[in-house]
Design brief:
The chain is an alpha+beta fold and 211 residues long. It is built from five helices and eleven strands, in the order H-E-E-E-E-E-E-E-H-H-E-E-H-H-E-E. Strand 5 and strand 6 form a beta hairpin.
């Protein structure tokens, strides 16, 4: 099992070399795209709201409004016309054919994106049993603290409500996977959908000052 998991991680690293690591913030009215796989679209701004449908990576959206960490969107070419999605699962998309081309990512940006993609795949595999039941324990995986070796994983209310031993085991598995990718300097924290830290590696991650 460990060998298969590592092969999948290496596959993700190779595939991630083609990704654009830009993370520009969207604003109301912007054209958005889904950045995760099988992301829930809900009927309200919260993880306890009913799931209307799931969206695949790259699905085209248009922002309507925001409520905290949640975005109300209109779905283009979808059976469900609109709903709410967590902000960590969307990114701006270019809609004009003549839009300026984005700068080619540097080797360091590609490497950082590949590392995150590898961990995202590993977390998705860890979450597979929950997803098979129609829900999920984890959401976005992203770099924090201004350093590529520090990451945070967004946990859902389902995971937060799980037994402490289960949550601790999940955290240690994610931390071990991340350190197998970046080395002993790697740090992980798991946060709720509002960004509150639930559990983290020692020493704790220090965020960059907000401007």
């Amino acid at each position: 099992m460990r060998g298969r998991a590592m092969r999948r991680l290496l596959t993700a690293i190779a595939a991630a070399a083609a990704l654009d690591p830009s993370l520009a913030r969207a604003e109301p009215g912007d054209a958005l795209a889904v950045t995760g796989d099988r992301v829930n679209l809900r009927d309200g701004a919260g993880s306890d709201s009913d799931v209307l449908t799931t969206l695949e990576r790259g699905a085209a959206l248009v922002e309507i409004e925001r409520d905290g960490k949640w975005v109300r969107v209109r779905v283009e070419d979808g059976l469900v016309e609109e709903g709410w999605i967590h902000v960590s699962f969307v990114a701006p998309r270019a809609v004009e054919a003549g839009a300026p081309a984005q700068a080619t990512p540097s080797a360091e940006e590609i490497r950082a994106t590949a590392r995150l993609a590898a961990l995202e795949l590993a977390v998705d595999q860890l979450d597979a049993a929950a997803q098979a039941q129609g829900y999920e324990f984890f959401g976005a995986v992203r770099a924090v603290g201004g350093k590529d070796e520090h990451v945070e994983v967004v946990a859902t209310e389902r995971w937060i409500a799980a037994p402490e031993g289960f949550r601790r085991s999940n955290f240690l598995a994610i931390e071990s996977l991340w350190r197998s990718i970046v080395g002993a300097v790697g740090s992980v924290r798991i946060v709720d959908e509002d960004g509150e830290v639930l559990i983290e590696s020692a020493p704790r991650i220090v965020d960059e000052p907000r401007r």
